[in-house]
Structures are given as structure tokens and as C-alpha cells.
């Protein structure tokens, strides 16, 4: 259970020569759920998309670092070798299921495409096995349907099946339930978690939602303005946060026993990458900031 499958080391990403992430490092172990949490614009998605090398070309550049996945640095693989990793060893689930689906192709054809690497005689069995685990009732009808005939929740369950079909060891889920109706978010998230567990896939869960991270993650990394502020076991990060940004982020989260007066929004907004300097990037919003935080990052 504890062998490492992914090690992101000192990863810096730049768009048009402006660095948006700065020496990001974290490790994910086999079968683990690892949440990358932070406000909008902190660099969660670009970090996640760098792993399967899905950043837009040529505007995005890797300015530094390594991405070691199953023992290989993905940044050094040829396009052909990367093709064998992306989609097969690493599955992706995005916020909008329609991003992953072809609107004019049938669901059956798209699921069959996801299991094309299997011997022909095993493909339908594998699809039906995944559909059952994803609680997609009436598989025959669904296989004959088109995306526009399905609800958002069903589409995301189908995308989850497609992501897990090749038995990847890592699933990257970027805000997988944010676009869904609130009443089905938990059910779809449960499905994603259960499928990952039963297929022994680790998950990199990108979320701005502390409740989601608390409920599902084994480990949490908190990201702020392109850097990892804090990383550790989920319970430690949530119960005894060390970094002022993590504390501030958790102060905004409603919880049992908290009143409205207890919720303290973080003043201001995340610094734009063009304004990053050598000082602490949180200093304009931090209640503990001192003058020296402009040149000496102590947290
Ligand atoms: N294609 C792009 N071109 C230029 N800058 C980009 C591009 N994509 C992202 N960025 C910038 O990179 C930074 C990090 O963006 P990213 O999308 O990773 O944030 P995020 O943490 O995923 O936010 P959200 O929670 O809103 O999805 C932002 O400053 C963003 O403007
Ligand atoms: S370095 Fe200073 S500004 Fe930054 S988080 Fe720590 S106390 Fe706050
Ligand atoms: Mg994002």
C-alpha cells in the first residue's frame, strides 16, 4: 500500500515566461487519495495537467523539476512512450464530463474505445463490470444512448468508468463534482472513490472544497499562489494546520458549532503570477504578516 507511484519534484511551470508555479513537490503512494487544495488561480490544475503532459503547447513550459511516475521521469519520455502512459496508466476526470466525451458518438462506442487494449471477447464484460461498480443501472439502454440523453451525474459516472477502464495506477480528478447538482455530488464522489479503491488506483483530487478533502483524502497539500504552503496527513492538516494560509482557508469553512460570526473571509485576492516576487506571496492577506515577510519567508 505504501510504495510511491508519483513523485513531483521541484516542478515550476511558466506561461509565456511568467512562472505560475514554483518548485512544487509532493509524493503519492499506491492506492492513496491525495487532495491538492487551494483557492482559484493557485496553480492546482496546471500542476495536475503537467503530469500527463496535457499543458497547452507551446505557451506552457516546464521551467524546472521532474515528474517521476512508476519509476520514470515523464518529462523525458518520447511522445510515443507518453502515449502509453496517458489514458492507460494515468486516467483523468475533469469538471465537465462533456470535455471527455464526444457529443455525436454513442456511449457504447466511447466505452468500447476505452477498453480497446483488451482482447475483443473481454471488452463488453469489463465495461459492464465497471458500469455495475459505478452504479449505472440498465447498462444495455445506456450503451445504446448518446451523451445528450444522459444527466450530468450519469455522464460523470461514464467518464469515471472510461478513466478506470485501462486499470490505471493513478486517476487525476480535477474538481470532478463541482459542475454537478449539489444533491448528487456526494454520490458521484463516493462512486469515484469506491472505484479507485476497488481497482487499486491512487487519486490526485483537485479541489477548493475543504469538506471534500476532509471526507475523502488520506493526504492534503495546500497550494497558494503557485507554491505548496503545507502538506501532510489529512487529519493533521485539517485539525492542526501550521501555515497561516491553511488556517485562514479553514476559517472560511462552515462547520458544526461555528456561527456566521466565526467565519472569517480572507481579505483581498490571490496575487497574480506577474506580481510574484521573492517575498511571501501571502503577506498582503496574512494576519501574522511582518515587514520582513517581504524578503524573509518564515512559514
Ligand atoms: N493557458 C494559460 N495561459 C496563461 N496562463 C494560464 C493558463 N492556464 C492557467 N494559467 C494561469 O496559471 C495560474 C494557475 O491557474 P490554474 O488553472 O492552475 O489555477 P487553479 O488553482 O486550478 O484555479 P481554479 O480553482 O480556478 O481552477 C493562474 O494565474 C492562471 O491564470
Ligand atoms: S511568511 Fe509572513 S506573511 Fe507569509 S505566511 Fe508567514 S507570517 Fe504570513
Ligand atoms: Mg483549476
Number of structurally distinct domains: 1
Q: Beta fraction of the residues?
A: 15-25%
Q: Which stretches are low in confidence, meaning pLDDT under 50 for 5 or more residues running? A: none
CATH fold label = Rossmann fold
Largest sheet, described in full?
Answer: 6 strands, mixed
Structural shape: globular
Fold topology:
Layout: E1 4-15, E2 18-19, E3 24-29, E4 33-37, H1 44-50, E5 60-69, E6 72-73, H2 79-85, E7 90-93, H3 97-100, H4 107-114, H5 120-133, H6 139-143, H7 152-164, E8 170-174, H8 182-198, E9 202-207, H9 210-216, E10 219-224, E11 227-233, H10 234-239, H11 244-251
Parallel strand pairs: 4-9, 4-10, 7-8, 8-9
Antiparallel strand pairs: 1-2, 1-3, 1-5, 5-6, 10-11
Helix pairs in contact: 4-7, 7-8
The protein binds adenosine-5'-triphosphate (ATP), iron/sulfur cluster and magnesium ion.
Question: Can you give a write-up of this model?
Answer:
The strands form two sheets. The protein has a six-stranded mixed sheet with strand order 7-8-9-4-10-11, with helices on both faces. Strands 1, 2, 3, 5 and 6 form a five-stranded antiparallel sheet that branches. It has one domain (4-294): Rossmann fold. A hairpin with a 2-residue loop joins β5 (60-69) and β6. The two termini are 31 Å apart. It is α/β, with parallel strands linked by helices and 299 residues long. It is 32% helix and 22% strand. It binds adenosine-5'-triphosphate (ATP), iron/sulfur cluster and magnesium ion. Adenosine-5'-triphosphate binds next to α1.
